[in-house]
Specification:
- By secondary structure, the chain is mainly alpha-helical.
- About 70% of the residues lie in helices and about 5% in strands.
- Helix 1 packs antiparallel against helix 2, helix 8 packs antiparallel against helix 9 and helix 10 packs antiparallel against helix 11.
């Protein structure tokens, strides 16, 4: 039973005796970005050809497709659909040439590879069927429903492909994980850099406590960065000096007020901070 796959809707229509992938739907957006009237007319013919092809009016479909090509519609979609049409007419040599033309115009156009694979399979040309099934599988994107169908075809051709497919998918998974790890790493570097810049700005403005907090955030993401560690330690030391100066000013103020006990307590606190200065360095 022949199934024709519509490229955007993935809807299937029945006809003839093998699997053929059709690449367009009647309401597909115009493939041209410009408003060239000639190209618009050509696209209109392509759409009419597709409609006639769905209805089984192959001669009418061929007429419309031919007009589209004559007006300059050169893309993989129309040539793939012409290939499907000729295959439906059982003119396989023509179908083959149009599928190959579609791939020539767009080497990443997947339906033509699928159609060639099934065309050669029907002709018992297993070597060529294998070639285009492999290419179709290699170009598959994640989540491609046709990839599983192609894997089945390859394993049926040669059971050893099961091991190759498993190995390839494992490599792909490893590669994806490595890419994800790189992405996460670069994201951490970027976020750490932002915290570091904020810390530098606050340090210059003598907001040492806030600067230390930003440097600590940066270090959570990049804990072994010598640059961030040095900046954080300098900010911590200057924060300690700033706090000692504030305590000293407070002690002098208390002395001037005659509150010697409180002043003595404040001075002891200052001496303790100075004695513990090494503890303020990097952990």
């Amino acid at each position: 039973m022949l199934y024709a796959k519509l490229s955007l809707s993935h809807k299937f229509i029945k006809s003839f005796s093998l699997l053929v992938v059709i690449s367009c739907i009647p309401f597909q957006l115009n493939v041209f970005a410009d408003s060239d009237p000639k190209k618009d007319i050509a696209e209109g013919y392509r759409v009419k050809g597709f409609e006639e092809q769905k209805r089984g009016n192959f001669n009418n479909a061929l007429t419309f497709y031919s007009k589209a090509v004559e007006l300059g519609l050169e893309n993989a979609v129309v040539y793939n659909d012409l290939g499907v049409l000729y295959e439906q007419l059982n003119i396989r040599s023509k179908a083959e040439s149009f599928y190959l033309k579609a791939i020539e115009l767009d080497p990443h156009y997947l339906p033509a590879y699928t159609n060639l694979g099934y065309l050669y399979k029907a002709q018992k040309n297993i070597k060529l069927a294998e070639k285009y099934f492999i290419k179709r599988y290699e170009l598959s994107d994640p989540g491609d429903v046709w990839a599983d169908k192609i894997k089945t075809e390859l394993v049926q051709i040669n059971p050893s492909y099961k091991e190759w497919i498993t190995s390839r998918e494992a490599e792909k998974m490893t590669s994806d994980l490595e890419e994800e790890a790189k992405r996460e790493f670069y994201e951490k570097v970027s976020r750490s850099s932002e915290y570091f810049k904020n810390g530098e700005k606050l340090y210059k403005e003598q907001y040492y406590r806030e600067a230390v907090e930003e440097f600590d955030r940066a270090l959570e993401l990049m804990p072994n960065s010598p640059k961030i560690l040095a900046a954080r330690d300098k900010a911590r030391m200057d924060l300690a000096k700033q706090e000692i100066e504030m305590q000293t000013d407070q002690a002098i103020k208390l002395i001037n007020q005659g509150d010697y006990d409180s002043a003595s307590s404040e001075l002891k606190s200052i001496l303790a901070a100075i004695e513990n200065k090494p503890m303020l360095k990097s952990r």
